[in-house]
Structures are given as structure tokens and as C-alpha cells.
Amino acid sequence: xxxxxxxxxxxxxxxxxxxxxxxxxxxxxxxxxxxxxxxxxxxxxxxxxxxxxxxxxxxxxxxxxxxxxxxxxxxxxxxxxxxxxxxxxxxxxxxxxxxxxxxxxxxxxxxxxxxxxxxxxxxxxxxxxxxxxxxxxxxxxxxxxxxxxxxxxxxxxxxxxxxxxxxxxxxxxxxxxxxxxxxxxxxxxxxxxxxxxxxxxxxxxxxxxxxxxxxxxxxxxxxxxxxxxxxxxxxxxxxxxxxxxxxxxxxxxxxxxxxxxxxxxxxxxxxxxxxxxxxxxxxxxxxxxxxxxxxxxxxxxxxxxxxxxxxxxxxxxxxxxxxxxxxxxxxxxxxxxxxxxxxxxxxxxxxxxxxxxxxxxxxxxxxxxxxxxxxxxxxxxxxxxxxxxxxxxxxxxxxxxxxxxxxxxxxxxxxxxxxxxxxxxxxxxxxxxxxxxxxxxxxxxxxxxxxxxxxxxxxxxxxxxxxxxxxxxxxxxxxxxxx
Length: 483
Description:
Elements: H1 3-10, H2 13-34, E1 58-65, H3 70-73, H4 78-82, H5 90-93, E2 117-120, E3 125-128, H6 132-136, E4 141-148, H7 154-163, H8 173-181, E5 191-197, E6 224-226, H9 244-265, H10 268-290, H11 298-304, H12 314-326, E7 331-337, H13 345-369, E8 376-381, E9 385-386, E10 404-405, E11 409-414, E12 422-424, E13 426-427, E14 434-436, E15 439-440, H14 441-451, E16 461-463, E17 466-468
Parallel strand pairs: 1-7, 1-8, 4-12, 4-15, 5-6, 5-7
Antiparallel strand pairs: 2-3, 4-11, 8-11, 9-10, 13-14, 16-17
């Protein structure tokens, strides 16, 4: 055998990629440094997207961590007041499972809503008096009242919504979109995450990093978390004595070293590191301008509420979400904890609603006034609902609460291709089970992707011998809510 043929015979796949990676990595680095800021392409290895003309270019997901009570806020059920204090019928419960907090509770008295409902707008949407500002935009909103899920605890349920699986390890929705659609901004990440919580710290919900992780996708697609205090991103500021010019030279030299390593080993995470160093350098200039609210009109700031200038608050994050959207960020994920009202429904629900009501409505109106709502999808909702029956004892009013409830709950969407002023689906007369036009979590995910011009069945990534997708092997687009 000739030396050339012998070499070809023993050349392994790993060696091939190690030797050829610099050509791919160098091309990727070159594209990072020269791309047009108006339309940055997705990963060259990603499917060619969108599959068809999108209605939405970007998403702002206002995830209400802890699960808002649908029967107290959006899903008006007169039957609850009628049956207040009476055991919920066994045929309604039907052997369903609940969290350990009520799993063994035999007394399940119906708890009437603790708020007052009224119809609003031309659509006649039923909304609680705890959410007057959201009620005022009801004609801009599509309420989905027949959502249902499978998880009965917070972390698996949120993970299911964000990644399509209850166990951590799959890419989050924002990571999928960053991978498939790329970015519209050259100065900011395509996927940004912000978190906030109630001032009372009434529940112990944790914001796990895998809620915005990239899973088995390259790590460059994971969400970049903006902190609630100090510098929004750690280590973004230069150390004392280091000028921007010195930083530029340091990064250029570091990139050369990384290129050498990339050439030797072909590890895609090295290419990710090159890209992230470049993004961090650009963010040193873009983030201070992004977080400077001095150019915002006073009437706009007032609309978001008194907490809008307090970094880390829900109101601050909502205004930041609008500013990120208009600068081309593809996916903005806001997570606000404090809805887990097992023993404090009578006190904490009102506080929580006050925190989120004005900022949520202001965001929708702000986007609309700036012409951004036409191609920005806003999503508001939790990981499940709350039980129509009481957790605890009916006579102990100070500790009234509701347990986790995955069998029917409400989520609303606005903007970008969604029919405004609409309520879709319905639960039964107790708000217990979804019974009309039921929408599963995978159906919701398929619909979001559809609005972004993506066929969820064709958008896949091969990992460990299997083609994975956000919707797993399920999901149907909810076409009746599409404009």
C-alpha cells in the first residue's frame, strides 16, 4: 500500500475534524468580525430558516414563576362561589395527582375566587380587578384558557415549557431560536434573560440556569443573564488602568492563541469562546447605552410604574425588554417569582398582581406605539395554574391557599400574528379540567415556532443518534388563534 493510501485508511473522523477545523473556525471568526448588524445569519450548520414568511421576528416571554391562579385572575367561574366551602365532586377530580402538599388531603373544599371579575373591552374578556391595567389592553390580547401540562412541581413544569422536556439537559426555546434564526444585532446577544422576584420573598423558587441553557447545542446559544444589581453582566467593565485600546489588543492576541488550539483540536467550544470574547467587547459599548433611561419620556416611565428605575425589578426588566427588542435581540426571557401562594393567597396575590400589572400592560402598549408589536410576540403566563379547591382548612382564612394545578390554566399572548381580543378554549365549570379546544404545552411551543416562520417538525438537531426538536415528538399548531 502506498503511504498516501495508508494514511487515508487510518484517518479517523476525529482526526479529520481536528485537521480541517481551522478552515471552518477561521471562516466563522471572519464572519463575526465583518457581518452586517442588520441581519446576522444563523449557524451555517443549522437548518435553512425560516421555512416560510414569519409573522414574528422576536419574542418577549414574561414567565410568571410559581404559577398564577387562573381561577382568581382570568378564568371566571361563578360555580366556585356557589360551591364555596363544599367538597369538590369526586367525578371532577377523577383520581388526578397533585403535589405532596395536597396529595394526601381528603377534604377538598371549593374555594371561591378572592377577586371580583368584570368584562372588558369590545371583546368582553373576563379579567380580575387585581389586574386593571392588563384588563385595559384585553382587546390587544389572546387569552388561551385551556392549557394543560403534565408536571405537578415547579422546576419540571418550567423546564417542560422552556425546553420540551421535564428533565434538564435539552436546549431552551431561546437557544433553539438563536441557533436556527441567528441574530438581528451585532452589538448584543440574540438571547437575553432577566429575573426578578416579589419584594416579600414569599416563596423559595429558584431560577435554575438550565431554564435558559443551550443543552446539547453549542454553548454560544445559551441565554446571557443580565443581573439585577451592579454591572448587568459580570466582568464587562475593564479593570482600572486598562484602556479600550489595550483590551482590543489583548483580545486580538487571545484570538490568535485560540485559533491555534482550534486548529489542533477542532473543539466547537473554542469557536464559541472566540465569538463570546468578541461579543463581550462590543457589549462594553452597547450595554451602558442600553441601560441609560435618560432619553425615555417621563410619561413612558410613569406607565411602567414606580419601580421602573429600580434595577432588578419587574418593571425595570419590562422596559429593558422593550429596549432590547428594538435593538434586535431575538428572544428576551423575563422570569418573575412570587406566585406560589400555598398559604398566603389572601395577602400575596394582590401584592404580586400590583407588581406585574402596570409593567406588563405598559410593555404591550409601548411596543404598539413604536410599531414593534406587529413583529414582536409577547407571552405572559406561568408553568401551571392553581387548584379550584382549598389547600388547608376553610375556617383558617389567614392561611388560605391553592396547590399546583396542571389540568387547566390560562396564558395570554399579544402581537405578531396572534388574533387580538380573543379567548380560546375553556375549562369546566369549576376551572378544573380543560374541556374545549385543549392546548398542550407542545401545541403552544409549535404555535410559537410557527409564528416565527418555523415548522416545528422540521426544526431538529441530531444528538446521540436521534433527531431532537423543541416539541419532542408531539405538538400541533393552534391555528384558530392565528391572525
